[in-house]
């Protein structure tokens, strides 16, 4: 995040009685509004217990890497609205990072948030058809519509939608009345590798993950609103004296 020009900070949280952190990176826009791009960093092994390996390649290294890739792509353009990348701790134990982040937001800060895009498990193709689930609530409907349009325009993804938010870091935002949407691989319940020692890189599908990120990028561009660029001279400059430009061609 630092290398990409984001102003970063860590937010201390607790997971039960244990310390953890949220990592936040921000790039300002020209307005006071901001778009959040989020994922969780932690993983879990439900059957093996706390001391067992929990590599978490899909759940949720794929989402965390997706946040960083979106942050990299978006950093190359100037936007009207700010970008805030957040990597949450403590999601698997009960959304601790996102719940505490939202609870700490003053009303004025909540009002700044135009949209929240949450990435959780984006790299396992769980059936013959590449499918993405867009999950939100009525407050998220316009975000879901934009993402579905982006998927149809720029990808080969089949889109499923749900207005019943469940068990990921978009939920605390929705509960607070903030428009938030989850993008997650379709048929995620069929993924038998997650929450175990078997959630490893060899089961991930990189082209499929790229399709989801392509959809996300297109939707984010509509929410962030690119600033117009100034035309630059594209030909010989004609002048009748030093520092006295008479005419120039633009393109």
Automatic annotation (TrEMBL):
Transmembrane segments: none annotated. Coiled coil: none annotated. GO terms for molecular function: metalloexopeptidase activity. One of its GO terms (biological process) is proteolysis. SUPFAM superfamilies: Zn-dependent exopeptidases (SSF53187). It holds the Pfam family Peptidase_M28. It comes from the Bacteria. Residues 22-215 form the Peptidase M28 domain. This is Zn-dependent exopeptidase M28. It comes from Kribbella antibiotica.
């Amino acid at each position: 995040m630092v290398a990409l020009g984001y102003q970063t900070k860590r937010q201390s949280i607790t997971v039960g009685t244990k310390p953890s952190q949220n990592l936040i990176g921000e790039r300002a826009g020209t307005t006071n509004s901001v778009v959040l791009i989020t994922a969780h960093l932690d993983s879990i092994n439900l059957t093996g217990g706390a001391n067992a390996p929990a590599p978490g390649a899909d759940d949720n290294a794929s989402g965390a890497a997706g946040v960083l890739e979106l942050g990299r792509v978006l950093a190359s353009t100037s936007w009207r609205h700010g970008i805030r990348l957040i990597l949450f701790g403590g999601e698997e134990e009960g959304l601790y990072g996102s719940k505490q982040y939202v609870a700490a937001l003053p009303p004025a800060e909540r009002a700044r948030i135009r949209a929240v895009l949450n990435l959780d498990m984006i790299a396992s193709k769980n059936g013959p058809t590449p499918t993405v689930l867009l999950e939100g609530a009525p407050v998220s409907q316009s975000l879901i519509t934009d993402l579905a349009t982006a998927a149809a325009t720029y990808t080969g993804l089949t889109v499923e939608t749900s207005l019943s938010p469940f068990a990921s870091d978009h939920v605390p935002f929705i509960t607070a009345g903030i428009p938030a949407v989850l993008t997650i691989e379709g048929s995620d319940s069929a993924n038998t590798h997650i929450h175990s020692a078997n959630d490893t890189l060899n089961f991930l599908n990189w082209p499929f993950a790229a399709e989801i990120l392509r959809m996300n990028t297109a939707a984010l561009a509509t929410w962030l609103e690119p600033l117009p660029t100034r035309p630059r001279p594209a030909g010989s400059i004609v002048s009748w004296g030093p520092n006295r430009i008479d005419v120039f061609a633009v393109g």
